[in-house]
Amino acid sequence: MNDRHRLCFLDGEMLPLAKAKVSVLDRSFLFGDGVYEVIPVYDGQPFVLDSHLQRLANSLSAVHMRCDFDFAGLVARLIKQNGGGDMAIYIQVSRGAPKERNHLIPAAIEATVFAMTQAFPAPSEKAMETGVSATICEDFRWQRCDIKATSLLANVMLRQQAADQDADEAILERDGMITEGSSSSVFALIDDTLRTAEDAPVLLPGTTRDRVIDVARDLGITVVSRGFSKTELYEADEVWICSALRELLPVTRLDGRPVGDGLPGPVWKKVYRAFQIAKRSC
Q1: Three state DSSP letters for 18-51
Q2: Contacts for 148 with CB less than 8 Å, ≥ 6 apart
Q3: Run means of pLDDT, 10 residues per run, the chain, 282 residues
Q4: 153 and 140 Cβ atoms separated by less than 8 Å
Q5: Pairing of the two strands 45-46 and 34-42
Q6: Which residues are catalytic?
């Protein structure tokens, strides 16, 4: 369905995306005062929906935003209204639109709830055959990256910094340790052990990452939540990034250096194949 006819949800109404409008006083517009979630849908079924909605609830709680809303029902409605199949659903909850701009959180205000679907981007043949590239950047974001907030300027800047170096992703380093990507979680295969950073306020708890961990463990692969340094990442046998929309991609070039032999590794191939089956049975 093209954008002109694609239906979205805004404050209780289902309407064409092109006709959706919010107030210029909406706090998400003025302050980035909102949270969001992205949910993959395969064959009309939302992927690990409970995990996504729990993360949304955690984000709402962390920013002290009340929003009693049937998000599961909204997801089902959007899938049906937009024809089912494969897609992604974006949900955004803003604190709302008060009468005046003020940093102080209004005492009583109704949240703005917006949701839309978008096409699910298939990875390119080149990414599958030769992998993607990444560069390591200093993580200058705020201290509460575990909140999936709409204020993503730092992530945008870091992603652009990577693009300016002809890299597909920025992998972030804070206090000598790798946290995550600008819009992804990061895995490293080191000494036959798959490692990913443990959950902490400085990174987003990844729902796709958690499912990848389950799939890898089902295959008999040792997986640990233990961080790693830039040096360890350079020396890793395999490096992967994953997210709701990218799924699971192999990083084969890091700061211009080959990762392993410079091609997608055998462990990634095994986990990727199993993930393709698992994602349609969640």
Answers
A1: HHCCCCCCCHHHHHCCEEEEEEEEECCEECCHHH
A2: 35, 36, 37, 55, 56, 59, 204
A3: 74 94 96 97 96 98 94 96 94 96 92 94 89 98 98 98 98 98 98 97 97 98 97 98 96 98 98 96 77
A4: no
A5: antiparallel
A6: 148
pTM for this one? 0.94
Q: Work out the burial of residue 62: count CB atoms within 10 Å of its CB; fewer than 13 is exposed, 13-18 middle, 19 or more buried.
A: middle
Provide φ and ψ at 248, rounded to 5°: -135, 115
Q: Which of 16, 8, 154 has the alpha carbon at shortest distance from 74?
A: 8
Q: Which domains does the chain have, with CATH numbers?
A: 7-118 (3.30.470.10), 125-278 (3.20.10.10)
